[in-house]
Amino acid sequence: MQLLFFIVRLSCRVRMISLFLSFFSLYLATLLMSLGTGLYNTFIALHLADQGVSQVWIGLLIAAFYTGQVLGARFGHKLVQRVGHIRAYAISAAMVTVLVLAQTITPLLPIWVFLRFLTGATMVTQYMVLESWLNDQADQKQRGSVFAFYMVMSGLGLVFGQMTVSFFSPEDLTTLNVVAMSMALCLIPVAITRRSHPVLQLHAPIKLKVFIRLVPMSMFVLFVAGSITGSFYGLGPVYASKEGMNTDQVAVFLSVSVMAGLLSQWPMGWLSDRIYRLNMIRFNALLLGLLTIPFYGYWHLPYSVMLVMVAIFGVLQFTIYPLATAFANEHVDPSLRVGLSGVLLMTYGVGASLGPLLVGKLMDIGGAPMFYIYTSLAAFSLVIFVRKEKVKGTYKVDPEPLYPCRLTCRLLRWQRRWIRVSMNRLIFHLTNKPWKKYWILSRPATRLLS
User: Are residues 424 and 294 in the same domain?
Assistant: First the structure.
């Protein structure tokens, strides 16, 4: 029985590796892009805090980035429809590289706001391409796992980006050159991929009213999740600095939260393929709202305790986005998925734009504890308003089947052969009879386990 249990576990692991390798080029592009984004946003916040800039200005710069994503989604959708996924991604990555480098020319904050706006407006196309590509070619039963791997690579890039900020001085603008290099490198995996891009749908416009009718709960969840996450990335470094942390401690504070969210993506994705996703969203939000109460400012927490708590916060807050996105994709026609990806990113961006502005103003008035007071209230709003009875629309058409790459096929063949031989050895061990007699009996088990 131990051998059989080992075979089952190995089969599951091989399936996960095969699934990961099937989309490896897209995952690698996500990693490189997120690395640059993590370093970019963290450095901007620390640089402005070091310069003594008001928290409202910091919130405005973060909000400009996400506002650009909101308004750029429609343009990105039209660009994808006109030139295809790969060309649209390449154009956007080149523009982001130029805009990041342009910030090293001038220190004027109004110009930075404009450049950050344009950066968000162009980068949203990259996210639209990657997410619609993954959702289009993922099997319905594997969508949670496919998107979990996407969030893992995204979170891993953000962690690396936030950790590398400790190697640079906050006042040195040449750090933005490293950001630009990362944004340029993310072009390579998509440019050389052998995976076929999704078929362009002629009738997939971004119509907000259509998606409000089809997936209202997902849009509300993404709006709130955007406000929480945008506030964390924009004002999390400011909160940590206000609590007396140095630059290294701020980097660890942020990275621990993102890393915890990263490590929880696959388990959450696995669970979401088996448990109703809205129930998981409500449970995550309830825990997040309750566990942030000790950060209201009435108690002084040691640094080690804060790290443990923010790790738990990362698990809860960073898994809301993939859960809501996977839930939304189950309730729309495949021809609408590019448009859905744009609308979801727009909704997320609206929340991420308003969140830092509101939290920055609250922190100016009430101090650093307002950061987590807002997080708690936003989480409780999900618990109150997200209901199964409000879900509308049904999934209409089965998604496209998953076509594995050559290496994946070899792994699957090796997996089946190894399972077949192991099952025959197990049968021989249990019966003490020639294994060839039971050769045919192992084939159904092979199909079942592989």
Answer: no
pLDDT tens-digit readout, 305-346: 889 999 999 888 888 888 888 888 777 766 676 677 778 877
Q: Is residue 351 domain-shared with residue 410, that is, in the same domain?
A: no
**Domain range for residue 55?**
23-139+156-390
433 shares a domain with 341: no
In this structure, is residue 247 part of a structural domain?
yes
In a domain, 275, yes or no: yes
Domain check: are 354 and 423 in the same one? no
CB–CB of 148/270 below 8 Å? yes
> In which residue are the tokens 């915890």 written?
260
**Are 265 and 317 members of one domain?**
yes
Is position 11 within any domain?
no
pLDDT in tens, 180-193: 999 999 888 888 87
For the chain, the domain total comes to 2
